[in-house]
UniProtKB/TrEMBL annotation:
This is Bifunctional protein PyrR. GO terms for molecular function: uracil phosphoribosyltransferase activity. SUPFAM superfamilies: PRTase-like. It comes from Streptomyces morookaense (Streptoverticillium morookaense). It catalyses: UMP + diphosphate = 5-phospho-alpha-D-ribose 1-diphosphate + uracil. A motif (PRPP-binding) lies at residues 106-118. Its EC number is 2.4.2.9. Keywords: Glycosyltransferase, Transcription, Transcription regulation, Transferase. Belongs to the purine/pyrimidine phosphoribosyltransferase family. PyrR subfamily. The lineage of its organism: Bacteria, Bacillati, Actinomycetota, Actinomycetes, Kitasatosporales. One of its GO terms (biological process) is regulation of DNA-templated transcription.
Amino acid sequence: MDAVIPPPEPARAVLEAPDIARVLTRIAHEIDERAKGADDVVLLGIPTRGVFLAHRLAAKLEQITGRTMPVGSLDITMYRDDLRMRPARALARTEIPGEGIDGRLVVLVDDVLFSGRTIRAALDALNDIGRPRAVQLAVLVDRGHRELPIRADYVGKNLPTSLRETVKVQLTEEDGRDSVLLGTRATASADGQ
């Protein structure tokens, strides 16, 4: 007899559009503060939502500093350590600003920091492109459960989670709205499916 699995609880919003705008403004101020007015900062978003967040941060930094902030994207698909375990993924675009990254402060931008494996892949990809003077990490949400010794320099929200929970970031550019949703994974039935 198969066990009856209750449906997962509906996801609840932990950040809405005004919260996301506020934390991005705070992160932009923190980046400017730590860069100490340096004009060699480059923002690189990790597709998909990290790219949108990088562009938003660049716009906020331009408002703060009055300078245009170089922004690009860094595809990590071929650097992932789970390529054999998952279905084939479409390659995203890597777009490096014309100034390049050599000798510059690169801020990697992503939506959720979880195991750290995505960031490890991003560091490998970055190493193949050039040699920045420093690399920092900005994330909208840090949910814990690191498998590698990686931490973010800038965090919008620390969100302690269990491994049964999911964190879904929605951004207007991709999803039609801004929110961060915390939900519960559907558990497998008694026979493993």
